[in-house]
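::Encoded backbone::
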Amino acid sequence: MAIRFLLFALNCFSGEQNISDHLRLKNLIFWGRHGHLPFERESGNRFEVDIDLKVDLSPSIESDNLEDTADLARAYEIAQRLVEGEPCELIETLAGRIAAELLTLPRVQSATVRLRKMSPPLPGAVQGIMEAEVTRVP
């Protein structure tokens, strides 16, 4: 207990802020042509994307000004362009590309992307999804 308190006190007085603010976009739906099999690239599939951006929201909370926060419209555009654009064989490749580009947005400290391929080509009568989750920090 004493060690935990000491670590807490050191963190509080070290001058570092422990920010854990997030902005999220969930269940974004796009059509893409990603996959290893030829028919996946020909016919395409539905993809769902969740984006979680770690951002210090203190400035925008104080100012109530859109210019002081991360641009979620731009984050949406990045996901849309990459999912609907050039095909990747692997969903983790696509998720990684989205996360990497999200890191270029001002104020973004880390980006987590969850990418789901709906109705993947699995054997049998499967009603499932494939999902990749990628987190990137600068």
User: Anything to note?
Assistant: Residues 25 and 73 are 10 Å apart (CA to CA). DSSP finds five helices and four strands in the chain.
